[in-house]
Amino acid sequence: MAMAGGGHVVISGGGPTGVVAALACAQRGFRVTLLESAREIDDNPRAATTHPSTLEYIDRLGFADEFIAKGLVCRYFQFWDRDTQTRVAQFDHEILRDETKFTFAVQTEQHKLVQMLLPKIAAFPGCTAELGAEVVGAVQDAGKVTVTVRRGGELSDIDCDWLVAADGGRSTIRKLLDIPFEGFTFPERFTVLTTVHDFERSLGCCYRNYLAGSEEWAMIFKVAGDDMKGRWRAVMPTRESESDEQALADDSVIGRMLGLDRSCTLDDVVHRKIYNVHQRIAAKFRVGRIYLAGDASHLNNPIGGLGLNCGIHDAMELVDTLEAARAGAGEDRLDRYERRRRTLNAEFIQEQTINNKKRLEEKDPAARQRRLDELRATEADPAKQKAFLMRSSLIASVRRAATID
Ligand SMILES: Cc1cc2nc3c(=O)[nH]c(=O)nc-3n(C[C@H](O)[C@H](O)[C@H](O)COP(=O)(O)OP(=O)(O)OC[C@H]3O[C@@H](n4cnc5c(N)ncnc54)[C@H](O)[C@@H]3O)c2cc1C
Known about the structure:
By secondary structure, the chain is of the alpha+beta class. The protein has 13 helices and 22 strands. It has a 7-stranded mixed β-sheet with strand order 6-5-15-16-17-14-18, sandwiched between helices. A 6-stranded mixed β-sheet has the order 8-2-1-12-21-20. The structure holds flavin-adenine dinucleotide (FAD).
């Protein structure tokens, strides 16, 4: 249980970043108040892919076995040419065996991570994890932060030593602090269709597949589902000609599914959802005693499955930073959080996800061929394949962090 280290941390937002930050802080002896505005855990299909570097952090926090047991172990991921329905390249995490004990990614849906951690956080003495509690205000002076919380119609204040804004892309706290969220929003949105159609049996897909197409790209992933019976998620861009309502209507949905595999049926589709997609980084990750983490500080497209992973990496850097703050570290040490996390987000997450999207959506025939050939060549050369996986799994990002002081 918690060591008595002292210090009170309020965390706004009980998404994946908030719960991991909360557990890490509780384990280091902070008193933690986790406030989540939603009354229920959001189980819409968002992140699932958890990379080796993140599994290492999860292992350090002591729940890797439980996390892996709720998901699917994915040793491989594949790139496909959607035009010809043929596999272009397969990448094998086993090539990382000298770098990590996790030679696979794990597909565990993000709401399961939240469900898993809320009771663990609340089990620490002095720590609470509350749903239906919205942070609506925060002011700070040299000695404390005062956080205003709304529960139903009631407002109340909580004083704390540090506030973590893990309140997602629309972060109330980032807006209250007037921090610019620099970057752009893609004109197209992403449609996520969840189906029980088995793409492994019908097309020979593995659990993580990226499909480059001259007409349209797609991603196909398998997740375990709450019943552990298996579901597949197909992600595609919305079409310019369609409103969101049209994109989610039966005729469009079955058209999209048949475009992936002629044996798909509408009855197999169990969920439909559309997301806006952005590439943005907050201009500042820290203002005095307030720290931004996860989607509150950065957003990226989901191709490559990096956003949540980056949020968990933020949380782990943040807990070290708060420990330093508790020990009386100076401004320069505390600003290292921003120096590291902002730089790494730009160098690894933004760079890779923008490139991942370009790779899949390339329409020019010659450039498309070049990109597919590059993937084949990367698979064929073990050194290149390893370097590719070191980046995609964010192991390279963790190592780069250690070089930024
Ligand atoms: C389709 C899709 C697929 C994705 N796949 C992957 C993937 O495979 N791998 C990956 O790494 N990432 C993926 N991502 C990205 C990932 O979902 C996000 O990066 C992740 O959810 C960020 O977690 P977070 O906790 O920072 O923010 P959020 O998940 O947005 O959580 C923020 C929480 O704060 C709460 N909140 C908001 N305002 C307040 C307030 N004022 N007071 C209190 N609480 C508040 C919200 O209710 C929410 O629960 C995907 C995203 C999408 C859309």
